[in-house]
Amino acid sequence: MNQNEKIFTVAITGASGAIYGIRLTQELLKNNYRVHLLISEAGWQVFREELKLDTSDRQACLEELFPESVETSLEIHGLRDFKAPVASGSYRTDGMVVIPCSMGTLSKIANGNSGNLLERAADVVLKEKRKLILVPRETPLNGIHLENMLKAEKNGSHIIPAMPGFYHLPETKDDLINFVVGKVLDALNVHHSLFTRWGS
Predict the structure, then answer these.
(1) Cβ distance 19 to 50 under 8 Å?
(2) Cβ neighbours of residue 159 closer than 8 Å, sequence gap 6 or more
(3) Beta-carbon count within 10 A of 2 CB
């Protein structure tokens, strides 16, 4: 592995908006970064329901979404695989993004209750003082959701809600998706041209 190669973890949960996680992963791979991808069972259901993807063969589905990268820069881990590198703080990464982040996953992360690899990886990133970005996608929000976001933020998480802006005059659904993903890439300090910046 190249010592200067950037490594990120992307986790996709069962909240609406799995396309955000897919687009983020595609952009990171386009920049030649290594990505550890975690997808919850509910996330796979969203792949089927929202994106109309055939998930009967999950490997083939991932190869369709991320052609060529599955064998090179992309590593996929099951949520019970606690031997995965991202389960340990001794494995150095440049950040983790949970996108979209369900309220259940937010609660587990905010309260240090790691019962699967996704939650464990997030806990590791926090304890090692690395960058953890949570992209919640829920509406309306109740007090518990808000308290968990505040708790996660106070303990080192960066909260970037899936709230697309409109000042760049979006014309397509892709424009809205790219705005949110671009905000995440900005927070990761990854160059992109997914949206037109204010004043440009």
Answers:
(1) yes
(2) 133, 134, 136, 149, 152, 153
(3) 8
DSSP at 197: P
**This prediction's pTM:** 0.95
- Please answer whether residues 160 and 131 qualify as being in contact, where contact means their C-beta atoms are separated by less than 8 angstroms: no
- Name the token pair of 97: 């993004």
CA distance 96 to 182: 15
- Amino acid identity of residue 34, one-letter, is R
CB 169 within 8 A of CB 197: no
Domains of the chain in sequence order: 7-187 (3.40.50.1950)
Which residues are CB-contacts of 149 (< 8 A; sequence separation ≥ 6)? 106, 110, 134, 136, 159
pLDDT in tens, 144-176: 999 999 999 999 999 999 999 998 899 999 999
> Dihedral, CA atoms, 133, 18, 60, 70, nearest 10 degrees?
-20
Summarize pLDDT for 96-138 with one digit per residue, the tens.
Answer: 999 999 999 999 999 999 999 999 999 999 999 999 999 999 9
- The C-alpha atoms of residue 39 and residue 41 are separated, in whole angstroms, by 7
